[in-house]
TrEMBL record:
<dbReference type="GO" id="GO:0009098">
    <property type="term" value="P:L-leucine biosynthetic process"/>
</dbReference>
<feature type="binding site">
    <location>
        <position position="100"/>
    </location>
    <ligand>
        <name>substrate</name>
    </ligand>
</feature>
<feature type="binding site">
    <location>
        <position position="90"/>
    </location>
    <ligand>
        <name>substrate</name>
    </ligand>
</feature>
<feature type="binding site">
    <location>
        <position position="250"/>
    </location>
    <ligand>
        <name>Mg(2+)</name>
    </ligand>
</feature>
<dbReference type="GO" id="GO:0000287">
    <property type="term" value="F:magnesium ion binding"/>
</dbReference>
<dbReference type="GO" id="GO:0005829">
    <property type="term" value="C:cytosol"/>
</dbReference>
<feature type="domain" description="Isopropylmalate dehydrogenase-like">
    <location>
        <begin position="2"/>
        <end position="351"/>
    </location>
</feature>
<feature type="site" description="Important for catalysis">
    <location>
        <position position="190"/>
    </location>
</feature>
<feature type="binding site">
    <location>
        <begin position="280"/>
        <end position="292"/>
    </location>
    <ligand>
        <name>NAD(+)</name>
    </ligand>
</feature>
<feature type="site" description="Important for catalysis">
    <location>
        <position position="135"/>
    </location>
</feature>
<dbReference type="InterPro" id="IPR004429">
    <property type="entry name" value="Isopropylmalate_DH"/>
</dbReference>
<comment type="function">
    <text>Catalyzes the oxidation of 3-carboxy-2-hydroxy-4-methylpentanoate (3-isopropylmalate) to 3-carboxy-4-methyl-2-oxopentanoate. The product decarboxylates to 4-methyl-2 oxopentanoate.</text>
</comment>
<keyword id="KW-0963">Cytoplasm</keyword>
<keyword id="KW-0560">Oxidoreductase</keyword>
<feature type="binding site">
    <location>
        <position position="222"/>
    </location>
    <ligand>
        <name>Mg(2+)</name>
    </ligand>
</feature>
<dbReference type="InterPro" id="IPR019818">
    <property type="entry name" value="IsoCit/isopropylmalate_DH_CS"/>
</dbReference>
<keyword id="KW-0460">Magnesium</keyword>
């Protein structure tokens, strides 16, 4: 089995190193090949998603991805900016289904900024559509306004759009995921304002006819953001578009104690996938050796479960993570008085030691 390793920028290489060590410690003899991506791809080959990197990703059975982005590239023209690498991989590989499980490990109930009783026992799944919406819609750009109150001025514009097929296929993923859990699905939209999301709501409602055993409700995204903080345990599975999912999943991350705890799987229709933490390249802490590698290690576990058909090995990694948390080891983002502060490498090494 071949795994493409794409560390990327900022803390990407630091956290991916730890996940690779954990995978190697399983002793399953994976074939792993690394390639530069994001700012690192631009620096090496003049493009954030070099051809050879895309080819490696296409040929591999699964992809382990760190993060891309670096302030020093923020002034490049958009097509050359690091973020185009992850957007390009998602689009090229048809990774339309992004699964972001927000689980609070009991040991971290005090690490969340919310009261323990609000978050303890939290186990929700956010399903984010990943290859459509305003992130990919065209046209987009900056132009001279030709109508409205600001005619003649420059205006920025993007296009929000969803095709019926795109909504149907993510709705099926969400209903099927709900069937395997508590059979409750919340579809998050902004149907009160946006045509795209009225259409989304109508299609999800139609797909629901095929899943009568799942209870479906609809919620506006602003309310959903509030409810996630007020009473997050009321949710089971949430499904939403690309942009709302991006924002809500970062909010959900804090329910788990830290964005450094939230893994993700981005899947195509055959469960080939790219696995990455939900966070970015964290340039503010890059190179300091303090990034939390657990979201990336847990993403590697998701890779074993969803793409490589090795659920027992995924369990091994997840149990090892539980064990190191029970041992009291904490990177600074999840540190509390009475626990032991460790760095990225020490945390990764502890997970390797905890594998049984
Ligand atoms: N999939 C990807 O590659 C993504 C890339 N980005 C890019 O990352 C760069 C930084 O973006 P930000 O908005 O700052 O988001 P970010 O997620 O990188 O960082 C937000 C905050 O969370 C902290 N943080 C993130 N991951 C952490 C970890 N594992 N351990 C401890 N603390 C952690 C950071 O230090 C920072 O204070 C930008 O260039 C952005 O475009 C952002 C999100 C996803
Ligand atoms: C480049 C961004 C769309 C990445 C991001 O924020 C995410 O996937 O969560
Ligand atoms: Mg994001």
């Amino acid at each position: 089995m071949k795994i493409a390793i794409l560390p990327g920028d900022g803390i990407g290489p630091e956290i991916v190193d730890q996940a690779v060590n954990v995978l190697n410690a399983l002793d399953l003899k994976f074939e792993m090949e690394s390639a530069p991506v994001g700012g690192a791809g631009y620096a090496a080959h003049g493009h954030p998603l070099p051809e050879a990197t895309l080819k490696l990703a296409q040929e591999a059975d699964a992809i382990l991805f760190g993060a891309v982005g670096d302030w020093k590239y923020d002034t490049l023209e958009r097509s050359l900016r690091p973020e185009q690498a992850i957007l390009g991989l998602r689009k090229n590989l048809n990774l339309f289904a992004n699964l972001r499980p927000a689980i609070l490990y009991p040991e971290l109930s005090g690490a969340s900024t919310l009261k323990p009783e609000v978050v303890s026992g939290l186990d929700i799944l956010i399903i984010r559509e990943l290859t459509g919406d305003i992130y990919f819609g065209k046209p987009r750009g900056v132009r001279i306004a030709t109508d409205g109150a600001f005619v003649g001025e420059r205006e920025g514009y993007d296009t929000m759009r969803y095709a019926e097929t795109e909504i149907r296929r993510i709705a099926h993923v969400a209903f099927q995921a709900a069937q395997k859990r508590d059979k409750r699905l919340t579809s998050v939209d902004k149907a009160n304002v946006l045509e795209t999301f009225q259409f989304w709501k109508d299609i999800v409602t139609d797909v629901h006819k095929e899943y009568p055993d799942v209870a479906l409700d609809h919620m506006y995204v602003d309310n959903a953001a509030m409810q996630l903080i007020r009473a997050p345990k009321k949710f089971d599975v949430m499904v939403t578009g690309n942009m709302f999912g991006d924002i809500l999943s970062d909010a959900a991350a804090m329910l788990t104690g830290s964005i450094g705890m939230l893994p993700s799987a981005s899947l195509d229709k055959n469960n080939k996938g790219l696995y990455e933490p939900s966070h970015g390249s964290a340039p503010d802490i890059a190179g300091k050796g303090i990034a939390n590698p657990l979201a990336t290690i847990l993403s590697a576990a998701m890779m074993l479960r969803f793409s490589l058909g090795l659920p027992e090995q995924a369990d091994r990694i997840e149990n090892a993570v539980k064990k190191v948390l029970a041992q009291g080891l904490r990177t600074p983002d999840i540190y509390e008085a009475g626990t032991t502060k460790v760095g990225t490498v020490e945390m990764g090494e502890a997970v390797v030691r905890a594998l049984i």
